[in-house]
Structure prediction request, 155 residues.
Amino acid sequence: RVVGEVPAVDEADVLLGLLVIFDHDEEQLQREPVAQEEALELLRKEGTALAGLTGEQITALGTVLGNNLAVMYKYESTPCEADIVLFTSTTSRARNENIGEDWRGHTMGQVTVHELDCKHVHMTQPGPLAEIGAIVAAHLDAAHLIGKDKNGELA
Prediction:
């Protein structure tokens, strides 16, 4: 199944994405875009994991993002024979109420959606990850794919 035409990605899109990941206001950044050096300075000042990026690396990220989008939009998938446990954020800017249905075309199994009370970019923070881990453990336990010791603890 072909998803569609590949959207163009430019440096402004990459800078916007990097700053939004670190909690900068997306709407303000869209109204007042920042130049590469200004974005890098914000990332450095805040001590983010991306503080050491160079302009050349930002350009490379744009190239990688463009390539990844091309693969995503052109890939023709066939449904797998497995259940999907899907985690979605409730405070994302573009919340999709039908995300479970969107994934149904990728599997012949069940799609179970779990909503997390966080932004999408924060799903790998300790709180949401603990919630995800507990849910995955429960699904594995229900499918009898993990064992427990004599005290009922995960083995």
About this structure: The chain has a mean pLDDT of 83.
